[in-house]
Amino acid sequence: MHKRCKWCEKDDLYKNYHDNEWGVICKDDDMLFEYLILESMQAGLSWHIVLKKREAMREAFDGFDAKILANYDDEKVNSLMQNDKILKNRLKLKSLSANAKAFLKVKSEFGSFYEYIWRFVNHKQIINNNDDICDIPAKTALSDTIARDLKKRGFKFLGSISVYAYLQAIGVIDDHLNYCFKRQNGKMQSI
């Protein structure tokens, strides 16, 4: 039996996310966008709630296709507000279009969102050394900097705390605890 980071022991949904996604370096721009949208939807909620609604949101949000989401309008937002399977917050749903447009602009400017986000750390993963979940910060100077830059570029619902969680999710920051089997496997894999 694997010893995992304590936060993910709640159920199989959390364990699967921890074991197969969280902290794995993600190079796929479509997945980077999906994680970005999920983090923006999570603001003020638990990540577990987001994971439980993820598949419904993937279906409702056209597979997290940024080109489609960029064209969402008030009519689409009103339609999404009727969907009981997803997270329903009008401002967050309205931000889908703004975030998609900003994402596509960043991709155009930098060649990929992966290149944009990894330039903040000189393309080197940050591997933290923590024994207890209480030692993991909610935000850092790095997440402050990236959140400011994202806001300047038109992104919404992505403050420093959400950005730090995003950096953990996509593998820029490895916050697997020292006793976790994901840490003990050595180098993180990428997707």
Automatic annotation (TrEMBL):
Enzyme class at the top of the EC tree: hydrolase
UniProtKB keywords: Glycosidase, Hydrolase
Molecular function terms from GO: DNA-3-methyladenine glycosylase activity
Enzyme Commission number(s): 3.2.2.20
Name by which UniProt lists this protein: DNA-3-methyladenine glycosylase 1
Organism: Campylobacter majalis
Gene that encodes the chain: tag
